[in-house]
Every structure is written in C-alpha cells, then in structure tokens.
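ok posting inputs for the adenosine monophosphate job
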Amino acid sequence: MKLRLEHSWAQLPPLMHTAVAPLPVAAPQCIVFNNALATQLGLDARAVEAHAAQLFSGNALPDDAQPLAMAYAGHQFGGFSPQLGDGRAHLLGELRDLQGQRHDLHLKGSGRTPYSRGGDGRAALGPMLREYVISVAMYALGIPTTRSLAVISTGEAVLREDGPLPGAILVRTAASHLRVGSFQFAASRGDGPALRALIDYTITRHYPDAAHAEVPALALLQQVTERQAQLIAQWLRVGFVHGVMNTDNMALSGETIDYGPCAFLDEYDARKVFSSIDHQGRYAFGNQSLLAQWNLARFAETLLPFIASDERKAEQLALDVLDPFIARVDDLYLQTMRVRLGLASREEGDAALVRQLLSLMQQSAADYTLTLRSLADLVADPEAGLRLQSMLPADPHGTAAWLAAWRVRLQRDPLDTTARRSQMHSMSPAVIPRNHLVEAALSQASLHGDLQPFEALLAAVQRPYDEPADSLFTTPPAPQERVRRTFCGT
Ligand code: AMP
Ligand code: MG
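and the output
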C-alpha cells in the first residue's frame, strides 16, 4: 500500500540521519486509531486503519516508506549529550495534509537504530497511550502539538524497572522533528555546511518569510523565539507541565513534542514538579519560560556564525532577540488571563489583578482549572461569589477584596454578560486530562487489557470547553487520588 509519502528529510546531509528499517514484531494489533487526523492528512482513513497494524509495525511498511532514524544531540537537565538521536523511532516519510502542509510520519517504539545507545528500541503500551491521549487533549485545547495517528500493540513484552510490560508503537505526526538538538548535533561536530542546510531547511519548511530577511538566520531565531513564547504561554494557560524540556525535546516548529512524564496541574502551585527524574525542580510549572529561554540560547549559539562574522556583534544581536522572551511570555499569558477574567479592554492594573488571584489560589491550593472556569458563573450570578469564597478559603478577606476589585473592573469593561461568559468559557477549559484519570485509564489498559476507561477519557478531552455529561471529568482528585509523581516509562 502507498501513502503518498515524500522524503525531504532524506535530502539533508548524511550526518543528520541513517537509513534503517523498523524491526518487525510478533503480533501487531491496532488498538487506537485517529480517524479525524487520517482524514485531515488526506489518507483513506478506512483503508489505512484496516492495514494499520501491518503498515506501522514494520511488518509490512507502506511501499513508499523510506525509513530513517534522525540524529540529534541535546542538553538533558543542563548537561550536554553530543550523541542522542532516534534510539527507538523511525521516520517513514512526510505526508501533505489537505491544506498542503507537510507532516512527518513517525513511529516511536519501532526497534533499535544506530542511535539506541543502551536502549532496547521499544516502548511500553502505557506511555504510548499517554502520549496519544495528552496530544489529543492539547490539540483540542487549541495548543500546537505533535499528533497521534495510532497506537499499535506489538504482542511482545518490554522489560522495564518493574518487570515485563506490554509493548506498543506510537504512530505520530509532527510539523517536523527539527529540534534545537538537531542544530546542536551539527554544531558540536563543527559541520558548517550541515548547519547551513538545516537553517535553509527549517526556513523553507516553517518560516519561509525569513528567507527574504537581511539576515535570514537572525530572522529564524526571532521567529522560533516568538513561536516558543506563544507555546509556553499556552502551556501556562492550561496548567501544563512538560517535565522534560531538554533541548532535544524542543521542536523548532513551535509544537509541543515528546510527551514523557508531563502532567496538568490540579491545585495551583507555581513550583509544581511531577517528573520522578526532575530532582532539582528544573522544569517546574513556573520555571518553564525561563528554561525555554535557556534552550533558545543554546539554539542561538549554533546560529551565531550565520548571524554576523564578528562574534561579539552576533552575540549582541542574538541577545537582543532573547532578552525580551520572558516578558513576552508574561504578556501573552496576561492576554489569555484577561479573557478568562471576562475583560475585553486593557488596563495597567490587570496584571496585578491576575497576580493576586494566582496568589490566592496558591495559598488555598485551589484547583487551577475549576477556579478559573467558575469565574464565568460569577458574572451572571452574584450569589456565586460564595462559591469562589469556598474555593479560596485560606484568606477570606483577600478573596472578598479581590472579588470586589474584579467587579469594579468589570463595570469599566464594555462586554455584555452573554458575550463575556462565552468569551470566558472559550479560554477556560472545563476538562483537562487529569492525572488521576490518565493513570487509572493507562493502568486499566496496560495491566488488564481494558480500553474502556481510556476511550471514555479520550472522548471527554476532545471537547474541553463544553461541560461534560459525566462530572467524573471535571472533578478534581480526592486527596488520596492525587498523582504526585509521573514517570518517563522509557
Ligand atoms: P526521551 O527522554 O524520550 O526524550 O529520550 C531521550 C533519548 O533516549 C532519545 O535519544 C531516545 O531516542 C532515547 N531512548 C529513550 N528510550 C529508549 C529506548 N527504549 N531504546 C532506545 N533509545 C531510547
Ligand atoms: Mg525526546
């Protein structure tokens, strides 16, 4: 079967990839398939689903696949690894969607490659289902993300710390797999022509107007930086903690990529860390804009020779792009919070209003999603103020003062109640993939072969801005249900 695959990545210098085929598996079975995505990709969804187990396991690849593993490097928790790369992943080629946009078609968990280092090249079912459901949720929330086309169980066991687990392959699509680490890979080998080729490729694929700039590499840095600012502001809006923001896990397209131990906040806490391997809290919720800026600085370093021949001058130009990054994320976040507070106008004091609310939430360990969503009810029903008081019990006077200040501010804003409520609902989701529900669904699927809770969760996260019929999906976890630690599962 042919999928109309194209192979632009294979045209990059040989340093950046190795041709290698996925390793066939014992008994592949397609257990989840994303029909809507297949259709958007211009595929015959029914036919592809019917053959997915064979096509995406490596047992009978698409006839037009040219599988390869990509090379990259990366700073992992601040330390540089010059040799990473797809250790358990294969690019089959690229697909153009109905709008003509190019997407990588990529397998994860599909066998060893020259970049596997000590790893087995495989993935466990739980983490692949996790990437599937979280990427579906992110997409539905309106946040740039790689997407998941299918999960194929392999019929083989993978050995992990806690013993054997069912194995699986994730079929994912991405605007591209260009990472900060791709550039670092070429730069750390001093390969100027490879870097030049990467710059040109990234510009052509993602930022075509940068080609016409006076200094295209500088324009590229500017545009990648802006895209990342937009992304991080969206993460902060929905309470997303990526958990492993290493430079190899930052996509230059501005999509969220590589869902490992990621999680969504239940109670608001800017210092929140979930990942079991993030011992220092490097990638805590509230650190994400700082660490994105750190990653962008690593990206900028690889571009310096292409920005100006004088190193000092190149550094200064790059710093001028990177310095405003955190303020930019803060501003974009403030814009989303204004919408959530029901404001169409802008005033100087809005930032303080937002800060005070977050501080009240932090003190009360209030549920981030629920508290912000409930503000829309307060607009129409003044009695609902009591509800907010009950959500923010730690400082009743502070909460009352905040409510009063907010109401005064609303009076100076032009929106009518109906428009205001719908605006607020459009930015404050009711449903996020809550950690306790994700964990329960994954363990039910992985340990008992029961996909029903997973499918119910999947359906709920697909309509995040609607009130779901089942309150299971909007209810925060009871204290004993709270998930405090998440794992990579690699
Ligand atoms: P990650 O933490 O998933 O971003 O992966 C970091 C690096 O480890 C990447 O180069 C992966 O390809 C590689 N890796 C992760 N798990 C495995 C595995 N089971 N086998 C081989 N390589 C792996
Ligand atoms: Mg990764």
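notes: The chain has a mean pLDDT of 96. The first helix runs from residue 35 to 40.
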